[in-house]
Design brief:
Strand order of the largest sheet: 31-32-33-34-38
InterPro entries: Utp13_C, WD40/YVTN_repeat-like_dom_sf, WD40_PAC1, WD40_repeat_CS, WD40_repeat_dom_sf, WD40_rpt
Strand content: 35-45%
GO biological process, one term: endonucleolytic cleavage to generate mature 5'-end of SSU-rRNA from (SSU-rRNA, 5.8S rRNA, LSU-rRNA)
Structural class: alpha+beta
Radius of gyration: 37 Å
Keywords: Nucleus, Repeat, WD repeat
Subcellular location: Nucleus, Nucleolus
Number of helices: 8
Main location: nucleus
Length: 727
């Protein structure tokens, strides 16, 4: 088979890994799990312009904008060799020969260079191409020593590596050639181009044998019989996100890998062409995210795209949902977790259903009557009965859902709005429904939040009150699940809590911004108790599971982060730690009572409590024959325990009350350990240097005390009590 393609990824020979570029990295994706198992990153932080994997999967070579070539042991993510490319401009393409000993690089300067990977030198410098050399390929028969290349002039050059001469230029394409494929016998070659044609070449006569228009279809080589056609909207748009930019067969597993215009990787099972796996290559800005499924096992993501993406959190596999024709802006999920809604710039709202068994998602309802982009959407909380949308046309619409919602997209229900209300003077940025489905709140760019009564089915919206106080547009509004309180956030950097009874502001939290930080606030004290730092840009989406044990955040930096509440785990660990400390302290007391000083000292050091260790040292020194007992105990300690003792002594020595104990321990160490041994201890030099000034100060103090005591002794000798006999 022949596939119209453009080389943006490679697949390992065993078909277990996908290699693809991502800025300064080459990511290695494990196909089975969908997880990145290795990430090969340039040290110079320059973008990778091209890479090649040898046919035996042993060698990976990358080229960066810094004109460096690096050879990697990709399984260990280690660079084994790097050298300067002789190209004057970045490398656009590269490939290995079948023996994995020769590497060809095509540059943006129109030159091709061949490298002996084993002996590590440049063997050829081929000139003559016009413009960027975006494709190089060796003939599969290495004995012919032929290289094929294509540049901006749309021709295919055949190079003889023995003479370094161009044998001929194959001309028939009218757009850049995107790929080359050879028949097993090497007698024929097929080329594909952006002109959407495949050309079969006879390499002996060097002429075109046949030209086949494919229009992104997959064809059988000799019969040119179409076996599969990708169905696109009619008429298909030029920038349709499902347009293919690369196709690669996986012959061992009878699969086909494709890359779409939005960098998504799709794996199809042959010959049925059923979608087996989908991987998202690039998210762009993530605008919203919600947990999905009965057990919150999935997340649905809205990116800067008309597509929705549903990820399985366990396997990282993805399903891409098509339906909207412009960027999806907001999402919400019904209580049961299998039904969710979306709205987009295409002025429509859509209702989607996820099958709890298969995980398949279908669009089951659609509504289109807004006059401008729909920027916010929310759904009923108690039953799957209605949806509310807010638009840039300044209106709010209430959409009633049918009692029986279709199961598949084949029976899509057309929604009609029950209520349309001119709610604000500017864009409606956020809408939310109360837990009892009786109230609705809206937040707008006009700096106001408004509370509405939803009333009975069929009734109009009734304005109950207005929340005033924000200095800039209101971006998000939410009801408290417990109290009659409303929360609102604004572009003025504040979060406000409002009373639903008198519409007064209860609390204000300052410091929220677009710095990518997620902050956790305690409402009672109005304090930020935790700051989560994982994003580099504005956080647009935030959602918690129904159990409130996990939170997912989505940011303009293209990253989605799932946070787990570890409060109970940390409390349990802290409690277990405290209980362990109590047991150890009791054991320490028993050891001291039994005069088992070595075990007592080792236990105190393991607790990493210098004060407790000091108590043990004092107990040893105050016991019978304390000096010898201290010497015996200290010398029996392990090296890591002696390192801790030295660190503790440096601290004890700063205090007059504990300096004698520190000096006693130091005396034992200096007496029995050589300077070389001491200096091998971690931080020994710094600790010993810290001992000197305080030791000198203690010596001066002792000297003054000695002088004073001698003076007192002198005075005592000279003093006589009147009438007392001389002694």
């Amino acid at each position: 088979m022949v596939f119209q393609c453009f080389p943006t990824l490679q697949i390992s020979k065993d078909e277990k890994f996908i290699f693809c570029t991502c800025g300064t990295r080459v990511n290695v994706l494990q196909i089975v799990t969908g997880k990145i198992v290795h990430s090969i990153e340039q040290d110079d932080q320059e973008d990778i312009t091209s890479f090649a994997l040898s046919l035996d999967d042993e060698i990976l070579v990358t080229a960066s904008k810094a004109l460096l070539l690096k050879q990697w042991d990709w399984k260990q993510a280690q660079c084994t060799r790097s050298w300067r490319a002789i190209h004057n401009v970045p490398i656009a393409s590269m490939t290995f020969d079948p023996t994995a000993t020769l590497l060809a690089t095509g540059g943006c300067d129109g030159t091709i260079k061949l490298w002996d990977v084993v002996k590590q030198y440049c063997t050829h410098n081929l000139k003559g191409s016009s413009g960027v050399v975006h494709l190089v390929e060796f003939h599969p028969d290495i004995s012919l020593l032929q290289l094929f290349s294509s540049a901006s002039d749309c021709g295919i050059r055949m190079w003889d590596l023995r003479s370094s001469q161009c044998l001929c230029v194959l001309q028939s394409h009218y757009s850049p050639v995107t790929s080359l494929a050879f028949t097993p016998d090497g007698a024929s070659m097929v080329s594909s181009g952006r002109d959407k044609i495949c050309i079969v070449w006879d390499l002996k006569s060097r002429t075109a044998r046949r030209t086949v228009p494919v229009y992104e279809m997959i064809i059988i080589l000799y019969s040119a019989r179409c076996v599969f056609t990708q169905t696109l909207p009619s008429p298909p748009s030029a920038g349709d996100p499902r347009s293919l930019t690369y196709c690669l067969p996986l012959p061992s597993s009878l699969r086909l890998a494709t890359v779409t215009a939005e960098h998504n990787i799709l794996l199809y099972q042959l010959p049925s062409f059923t979608t087996q796996q989908q991987f998202v290559g690039f998210n762009d800005e993530v605008l919203d995210v919600k947990f999905l499924g009965k057990g919150d096992t999935h997340i649905v993501v809205a990116t800067n795209s008309s597509q929705l993406k549903v990820f399985d959190l366990a396997t990282s596999s993805c399903k891409i949902l098509y339906g909207h024709t412009d960027t999806v802006l907001s999402l919400d999920v019904f209580k049961k977790g299998s039904l969710f809604v979306s709205c987009a710039k295409d002025k429509s709202v859509r209702v989607w259903r996820q099958d709890p068994d298969s995980g398949q998602v279908s669009c089951v309802a659609q509504g289109c009557s807004h006059a401008n982009a729909v920027g916010s959407i929310t759904c009923s909380r108690m039953k799957e009965s209605f949806v509310v949308s807010g638009s840039q046309d300044c209106t709010i619409k209430v959409w009633d859902l049918p009692e029986t919602i279709p199961e598949t997209d084949g029976d899509m229900f057309q929604l009609t709005s029950r209520v349309t209300e001119k709610a604000h003077d500017k864009d409606v940025n956020s809408v939310a429904v109360s837990p009892n489905d009786k109230l609705l709140v809206s937040g707008s760019q006009d700096r106001l939040a408004k509370l509405w009564s939803l009333g009975a089915p069929g009734a109009d919206l009734a304005l109950l009150g207005v929340f005033r106080g924000h200095r800039r547009g209101v971006w998000c509004v939410q009801f408290s699940p417990m109290d009659q309180v409303l929360a609102s956030s604004s572009a003025d950097g504040s979060v406000k809590l409002w009373s639903l009874q008198d519409f007064s502001c209860l609390k204000v939290g300052e410091g929220c911004g677009s710095d990518g930080l997620v902050k956790l606030w305690t409402i009672k004290t109005n304090e930020c108790v935790k700051t989560l730092d994982a994003h580099q840009d504005k956080v647009w989406g935030l959602h918690a599971t129904r159990k409130d044990d996990r939170v997912v955040t989505a940011s303009a930096d293209s990253n989605i982060t799932v946070w787990t509440d570890v409060t109970e785990v940390e409390q349990a660990e802290e409690q277990a730690k405290q209980e362990d400390q109590i047991l150890k302290k009791q054991e320490l007391s028993n050891l001291l009572h039994e005069k088992k000083y070595l075990k007592a000292l080792g236990l105190a050091i393991s607790l990493d409590q210098p004060h407790t260790v000091l108590k043990v040292i004092k107990a040893i020194r105050q016991g019978e024959d304390g000096a010898k007992q201290l010497e015996k105990t200290v010398l029996k300690l392990r090296q890591d325990q002696k390192e801790s003792m030295l660190r503790y002594c440096a601290v004890w020595n700063t205090n007059a009350r504990s300096c004698l104990d520190a000096q006693a321990v130091i005396q034992v160490m200096l007496t029995h350990l050589s300077p070389e041994e001491l200096l091998q201890y971690q931080g020994a030099r710094a600790h010993l240097e810290g001992l000197i000034p305080y030791t000198e100060r203690h010596m001066q103090r002792i000297g003054r005390l000695l002088q004073a005591s001698m003076f007192l002794d002198y005075m005592w000798q000279k003093m006589r009590v009147t009438g007392a006999p001389a002694r």
